[in-house]
Design goal:
Layout lengths: L1 E2 L8 E4 L2 E11 L7 E8 L5 E7 L3 E4 L2 E12 L2 E6 L5 E5 L14 E7 L5 E5 L3 E9 L12 E6 L4 E5 L7 E5 L4 E6 L2
Antiparallel strand pairs: 1-6, 2-3, 2-6, 3-4, 4-5, 7-8, 7-10, 8-9, 10-11, 12-13, 12-15, 13-14, 15-16
């Protein structure tokens, strides 16, 4: 049994007869009254996000989790196929468990958390950023760069993202996976 001081981003806990992953947390110590922890939890089974506040010292049931590096192989509709880079075992994971799945390209290395008790995958942690090629976008208009204007673009994985006007088809860009934002153009 753990308590609220053990809550961190990425920790999996048992809550309301389901397993949730902590997405965000904030320890709050108000001037008056007891301290508490405000959390945003994501259900591992359904993908539903709930907000919950735990009073300080509240007992929580944490889940023993094993993390391994896996390589993304391919996807067929809602199933994503990964291979363990250590022992070459393959697993299938449902699309709703994966955050930012639209940025996954074949060969990408991700970290997968697996429940130690039953061997079920709990979550897929994407790298902080990925490099993808732009396959479709409108050409930039010369002289229209005085403002911080953006235009829509489609990457090689089919993800839609807004990019600066100077980005053209065939350019490789770095994308922050957590928020899905353009970071920079990558020179080869």
């Amino acid at each position: 049994m753990a308590n609220t001081s053990d809550i961190k981003k990425g920790v999996c806990i048992k809550f309301n007869n389901d397993i949730y992953k902590v997405i965000e947390f904030l320890h709050v110590k108000p001037g008056k009254g007891p301290a508490f922890v405000r959390t945003k939890l994501k259900s591992v089974s359904s993908g539903k996000i709930v907000d919950n506040t735990f009073s300080s010292g509240h007992k929580i049931e944490s889940i023993r989790v094993e993390t391994n590096k896996f390589q993304f192989l391919y996807n067929d509709f809602d199933q994503f196929h990964f291979m363990n880079t250590d022992n070459y075992e393959q697993i299938n994971i449902d699309k709703n468990i994966i955050d930012s799945s639209e940025f996954l390209k074949e060969g990408e290395i991700v970290t997968i958390s697996i429940n130690s008790e039953d061997g079920m995958p709990l979550s897929v942690d994407m790298p902080a950023s990925v490099i993808l090629e732009i396959t479709q976008t409108e050409p930039g208009i010369k002289g229209n760069t005085a403002t911080n204007a953006t235009k829509p673009a489609i990457t090689e994985t089919g993800a839609r993202i807004n990019v600066p006007l100077f980005i053209n088809e065939g350019d490789k860009i770095k994308i922050e996976t957590e928020k899905g934002l353009y970071q920079e153009r990558v020179k080869e």
